[in-house]
Structure formats: C-alpha cells, structure tokens
C-alpha cells in the first residue's frame, strides 16, 4: 500500500483509497469470508467488509468474489479495494498546533490529548486534519485522500505525543515505507498498574477484534495478527505502579494497551482495558499516597499513554531525525513531577 496509517499502532488496514492485500493465515481455515476478512482488516467492521465484498471490491487469488459466506482456505490471497472517500466538506480550522519540527516536506507535531487525528463519524470538525489544512493550505500530501491528507500514522484521541505528517507526496511515500518496514521508530511511555517482571521483556501475542465488542481489540489464539511489543520498566512508583517505556515492533490497533493488560499490567485510566477500580484502590492504599494524588489516579479520565519519542530518516534529505517530548501535565501529575 502507498499510504500507511497507525494509531499506536494500527497498521493501515481500512485506509480509504487503498488496495488492502492479505494472506489467509492457518488459524482462519474454513471461516466465512466476511468474518476472516474483518479479522484481518482491523479498521473495518464486519458490516463494512460485507458491503465492500457485495459491491464487487474483492478478489481471491485474482478472481472476483462477492460471496460473503465463502469458506476461506489458508494461503489464499485476498485483495480488497477500499474506494477513495467521496468529496467531503472538511474545512480548515485555526486550531493551534504544537510543532516540534517543520520544513517544506513534513512536520512533526506534539498532539495533545482529546484531539482526534482525522475526521470520521461523529468527528467531522475540530480534528488534526482540520488544523493541518489551515496551517499548510494546499501544501499537504494528498495521498491520504480528502479525509486524511498528510496523515502517515495516527494516535488515539486520548493518547498524547509525537506524530509526523507529510506535506509532499514524496515525503509521504518515504515515511510510509519506513513505517511499513519499522525503521520509523516510536517509543511510548505508559503508566501501568503493578511492576512488570522481568523489568525488560517482550510481549508477542496475536491481536484481533474482540468477539463481542467491536470497539475493542483482544489477544486471540486464532485469526489474529502477529503483534510484538518490547518494554522496559523505567521507574517503579511506590512498588505498586510503573512507568514503562514501550517500543512497537509491529503496529496493531491498541497494541500497547492490549499487551500490557494481557500481562496483568493495564494502563492507568484505560476505559477499555482496565484496571478495575477495586484493584486500583487497593494499590493506592498499599502505596500510601496522599488524598490529592489518590484522587488524581482514581479520576484520571484516559489511558496514561504518551508517544514520547519518534525517529526516522528524512525521506527527502536523508538526514537522521529524532525527537522527544515529555508527558503532558495531567500524566506528569500522576508521576508527581508537576
């Protein structure tokens, strides 16, 4: 694919205007086509997959197929065309941007929490794309289409930190290639319940859609996609919490959040993956924090996750670039450093 879109780290499945290519894994043998494809194309719901297949947008081993109940076999090549978005009314908006680096080819942004990256259902305004359109005007890569111009990768709405956006198609293609081969590095800081043991380790657990909640991802034994997170405990906090540095070796939707929850160290404040309030209260009692700090933890409204570092080779000049920003004030307050 030309364009790649990630959100800690969604690997691009579902990007409008792309031809998405998958190979059916052995764990999906015999599954219905729509179910198997929805598990592979993580950004598409089963109903969206069904609509695309029925509209004639799928080929299996080069042969068109519009039968959503077709039983897939391992090794089959699935090619799904996601049509480009129709012209939309995405308008430039004067939204302040915290720009860390900018030249005529790209810019690196420190995204605040609460800012949606690109327009979508329920969020057609007040997004990073609206802000980029205002800041860059027509100097923004068109590879992402009308809805996602310049967007090479993304972060969840409530995850803060560093992102790179492309102004030119050449920069976009170069950055997307680095994202695909994982030479574009991203390191996150996560505040988790408990202290992981060992202090340095790897989590390699396949991730797929949750069976009953389409808003969630989950560790799955079959039908998912390989996911690999490297972590390092950077700081222990009262023996009950840890600031963990996480590096993505793959990019799957909600990867860090799912993997840390899977090893019983969920992110503080995470509304989808825990921790349970009773477990959080028990840890706070053992930590003997004062009332103010306890309330900060109990009332923290989002996943305590921050994209702290990003590094890549400038796709035009060839220069090695690396950037780092500290966590925002709300997360820093949990660490008691404000």
Describe this entry's structure for a reader.
It is a single chain. Among the domains are: 19-81, RNA-binding S4 domain (Structural Genomics Hypothetical 15.5 Kd Protein In mrcA-pckA Intergenic Region, Chain A); 188-305, Pseudouridine synthase. 21% of the residues lie in helices and 25% in strands. The chain has helices at 33-40, 46-54, 128-136, 169-180, 255-262, 277-287, 291-298, 329-334; strands spanning 19-23, 58-60, 63-64, 77-81, 99-102, 106-111, 160-166, 185-193, 200-204, 207-209, 217-219, 228-237, 241-248, 305-313, 320-324. The strands form three sheets. Strands 5, 6, 7, 8, 9, 12, 13, 14 and 15 form a nine-stranded mixed sheet that branches. Strand 5 (99-102) and strand 6 (106-111) form a beta hairpin. Helix 1 (33-40) packs across helix 2. The longest helix is centred in the middle third of the chain and has 12 residues, at 169-180. The termini are far apart. 41% of the residues are buried.
CATH architecture of the domain at 188-305: 2-Layer Sandwich
Q: Helical content, roughly? A: 10-25%
Write down the overall mean pLDDT: 89
Distance between the termini: 43 Å
CATH class of the domain at 188-305: Alpha Beta
Rg result: 20 Å
């Amino acid at each position: 694919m030309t364009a790649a879109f990630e959100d800690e780290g969604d690997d691009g499945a579902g990007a409008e205007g792309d031809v998405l290519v998958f190979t059916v894994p052995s764990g999906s043998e015999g599954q219905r086509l729509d179910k198997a494809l929805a598990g592979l194309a993580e950004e598409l719901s089963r109903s969206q997959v069904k609509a695309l297949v029925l509209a004639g947008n799928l080929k299996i081993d080069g042969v068109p197929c519009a039968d959503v109940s077709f039983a897939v076999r391992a090794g089959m090549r699935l090619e799904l065309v996601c049509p480009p978005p129709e012209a939309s009314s995405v308008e430039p908006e004067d939204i302040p941007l915290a720009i860390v680096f900018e030249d005529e080819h790209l810019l690196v942004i420190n995204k605040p929490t609460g800012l949606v990256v690109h327009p979508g259902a329920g969020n057609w305004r007040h997004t990073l794309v609206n802000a980029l359109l205002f800041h860059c005007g027509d100097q923004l890569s068109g590879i992402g289409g009308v809805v996602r111009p310049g967007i090479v990768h993304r972060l969840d709405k409530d995850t803060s930190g560093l992102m790179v956006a492309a102004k030119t198609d050449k920069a976009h293609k170069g950055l997307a290639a680095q994202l695909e081969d994982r030479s574009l590095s991203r390191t996150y800081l996560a505040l988790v319940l408990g202290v992981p043991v060992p202090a340095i380790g790897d989590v390699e657990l396949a991730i797929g859609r949750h069976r009953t909640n389409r808003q969630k991802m989950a560790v799955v034994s079959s039908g998912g996609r390989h996911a690999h997170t490297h972590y390092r405990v950077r700081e222990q906090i009262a023996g009950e919490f840890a600031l963990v540095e996480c590096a993505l070796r793959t990019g799957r939707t909600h990867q860090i959040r799912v993997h840390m929850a899977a090893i019983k160290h969920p992110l503080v404040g995470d509304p989808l993956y825990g921790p349970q309030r009773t477990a959080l209260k028990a840890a706070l009692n053992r930590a003997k924090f004062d009332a103010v700090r306890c309330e900060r933890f109990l009332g923290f409204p989002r996943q305590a996750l921050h994209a702290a570092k990003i590094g890549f080779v400038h796709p035009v000049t060839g220069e090695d670039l690396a950037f780092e920003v500290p966590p925002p004030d709300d997360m820093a307050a949990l660490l008691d450093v404000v």
